[in-house]
Write a structure and sequence with these properties.
With 369 residues, the chain is an alpha+beta fold. It folds into two domains: 85 residues; 247 residues, Bira Bifunctional Protein, Domain 2 (BirA Bifunctional Protein, domain 2, 2-Layer Sandwich), CATH 3.30.930. Helices cover 37% and strands 18% of the residues. The protein has eleven helices and ten strands. Strands 1, 4, 5, 6, 7, 8, 9 and 10 form an eight-stranded mixed beta sheet that branches. The chain has a two-stranded antiparallel sheet with strand order 2-3. Helix 1 packs antiparallel against helix 2. The radius of gyration is 41 Å and the shape is elongated. Bound molecules: phenylalanine. Phenylalanine binds next to strand 9 and strand 10.
Length: 369
């Protein structure tokens, strides 16, 4: 018969001597594992006479409990010591700067658009919108494009495949079809963000995406325009000129901007003009407000009587003017970007450099940017 006191002393020494948790676990297996010395002792109880068992049972079980307690206590002590040792080797330098957090920015096109909208809203224009996919009627026919006009041809326009009714829709090539939507009353059931059939007098601007098959330093296949439309009685070229000159001076935030109206042709306006701004193009950069060069920035004119008629308005009663300008190109000019295609390349470095803080909300009362 093993001397329980000796065994307990030997086991206790083994536990106390374990230098780390791995060695302690080996000791635990030696003592309480399947064939551990205390486990084996417990198994001898089965072969004992009832009297013997009554005496040995509590003694051996007590031994097992004390061993388990000692192992648990030693384990807790060793774990605490190991954690302390690990922490002692770790240095946290709270004075180090935090890793930079990536912050998004407002795209220059959207910033420019917001600036333009803020200026026109301040002049009393309201906002109208239309869809990117347009009918041939709204994009061309209602706007007085003759049937064989070159702009309808494949090289300019993205045509969609014919639908079941034999109709060929287009990706709108300009925001001018929204002029038609604003004036024309139809019975179509449309989502309520799409402009439809307003009573004159009308004063709207129309921001939106436009599409043309074109790509070079100053053209991209998708770009943005803002259209303007004013319909009222006795509207003339003077209203058009004042509105656009006021807009340009406020947009470029310099009183030195010199503009000129150059006769032009659009099927939907008569007379038509393009506005150029005085600029300096030397040194591969365009600078506004100096130099002796001209840069075209927008198209405009008096709404053609045929367009008014196509939209159900009597040209003897109502007149108006319209204009359309490229938003990306105006932004490029104002903020000095050399290539329009970069605007849509989604290069994060470019966006970080040219992007705006969301807090730089354009407000004509406090400054635009
Ligand atoms: N829609 C014309 C274009 O995209 C611009 C324009 C709009 C001209 C309104 C006159 C009136 O070039």
């Amino acid at each position: 018969m093993t001397n329980l006191a000796d065994l307990e002393a030997a086991n206790a020494a083994l536990i106390a001597a374990a230098p780390d948790t791995a060695t302690l676990d080996e000791a635990r297996v030696q003592i309480l594992g399947k064939v551990g010395n205390v486990s084996l002792l417990l198994k001898t109880l089965g072969a004992m006479s009832p009297e013997e068992r009554r005496e040995q049972g509590p003694a051996i079980n007590g031994l097992r409990e004390r061993m388990a307690e000692q192992i648990a206590a030693r384990k807790a002590a060793l774990e605490a010591a190991e954690l302390d040792a690990e922490l002692a080797g770790v240095h946290v330098d709270l004075t180090l700067p935090a890793p930079p957090r990536r912050r998004g920015s407002v795209h220059p096109t959207m910033q420019t658009m917001d600036e333009m909208i803020a200026i026109f809203a301040d002049m009393g224009f309201s906002l109208a919108e239309g869809p990117d996919i347009e009918t041939d009627f709204n994009n061309f026919t209602a706007l007085n494009f003759p049937p064989k006009h070159p702009a309808r041809e494949m090289h300019d326009t993205f045509f969609l495949p014919e639908d079941a009714n034999g109709e060929r829709k287009v990706l709108r090539t300009h925001t001018s079809p929204v002029q038609v939507r604003v004036m024309n009353r139809t019975n179509e059931k449309l989502p309520n963000w799409i402009a439809q059939g307003q009573e004159p007098p009308i004063r709207v601007i129309v921001p939106g995406r436009t599409f043309r098959k074109d790509s070079d330093q100053t053209h991209t296949p998708m770009f943005h325009q803002i259209e303007g439309l004013v319909i009222d009685r006795n509207i003339h070229m003077g209203h058009l000129k004042w509105t656009l000159e006021t807009f340009i001076a406020r947009f470029f935030e310099t009183p030195e901007v010199v503009t000129r109206f150059r006769p032009h042709h659009f099927p939907f306006t008569e007379p038509s003009a393009e506005i150029d701004v005085r600029c300096d193009r030397s040194g591969g950069e365009v600078r506004i407000g100096q130099g002796d060069d001209w840069l075209e920035i927008l198209g405009c004119g008096m709404v053609h009587p045929n367009v008014l008629r196509n939209c159900g308005l009597d040209p003897d009663e109502w007149q108006g003017f319209a204009f359309g300008c490229g938003v990306d190109r105006l932004g490029m000019l104002k903020y000095g970007m050399p290539d329009l295609r970069d605007m849509f390349a989604s290069d994060v470095r470019w966006l970080q450099h040219y992007g705006f803080s969301p807090f730089a909300m354009p407000d004509p009362a406090t400054g635009l940017s």
